[in-house]
Amino acid sequence: MTQAHSDATRFGEAINRYLGAVGYPDPYAPAPRPAAHAAPAAPSTGLIVAGADETPAGFVAVDHAAVEAELRGWALRIVNVRRPGAGDAGARLLDRLSERVRTGSPAVAVTTRLVIGPDPARALLAEAGEAGLVVVGHRHGATATTFGRSVADRVARQHAGPVLLVRMPAGSAWPARPLIVGVDGSPPARASLEFALAEARVRGCEVVVLHVVGDGSDLARRLDTRSPVPVHHKIIQGDPLAELIEASGRAAAVVIGRHHHGVLLPGTALSAAAHLLPQRALCPVFMVGPV
């Protein structure tokens, strides 16, 4: 696999500056650098919704959401779901997180929403209806909390738009890594590829496309000529899930198409990977495509 370039990306610069401003400890690490890329397009009217709780995964989700909102010029809404009788802990958390975003990304218009109800996933899905991106913290194999494993999985499978599942990154080189996307010629894979190219353009990073054997070898040549970002290609012949998990250890994020609520469909080589990758990837995962 082609190694990611070592130059700073817009995403890396934004997250380093953001995390430096809010006093976040390593592992993101290096000091902020002066901007080395042209500014993104003029602000639009998009919205990012971030699910938040008191866990480290919840805080990381808000951090990622703030940086994504800054890069796009979108607004950010932070949502916390509480069961009845929880007191004012939710309001205090949202105040803390919104102040964190204002400190790290002053240009981001941030609002908060406290939802009282028994089903966090359903509540977050209702709040996410108008969002262009939903960001949720995800944890490996742990008992679910407010926005823990099972809630994140439900949101990723049931929300109609893109969902970013985030975890703590590994190492200071992480922001400069490429996006990884798996393709197999299916409609979900085509949607994930289009999203990955658009996300890479916003971040200023490279894309590595993992082609499952049989998806059409001429696709790589066509993409190289029309893509606005550097694109590298690799043909994979083994288990797509194992290949994607291995590649995720060197990626800023993995993008994969959503396959009908995680149901394994015949004729789509990546359907099993789409079902299992959010639990096993070593980096954030974008779930893309219609439910």
Automatic annotation (TrEMBL):
Spell out the protein name for this chain: Universal stress protein
Pfam families named among the record's database cross-references? Usp
Residue ranges constituting the UspA domain according to the UniProt record: 48-167, 177-223
Q: Which family does it belong to?
A: Belongs to the universal stress protein A family.
Organism whose genome encodes this protein: Paractinoplanes deccanensis
**Signal peptide (UniProt feature, chain positions):** none
PANTHER family per record: STRESS RESPONSE PROTEIN NHAX (PTHR46268), UNIVERSAL STRESS PROTEIN UP12 (PTHR46268:SF6)
Q: From which residue to which does any coiled coil extend?
A: none
Superkingdom per UniProt: Bacteria
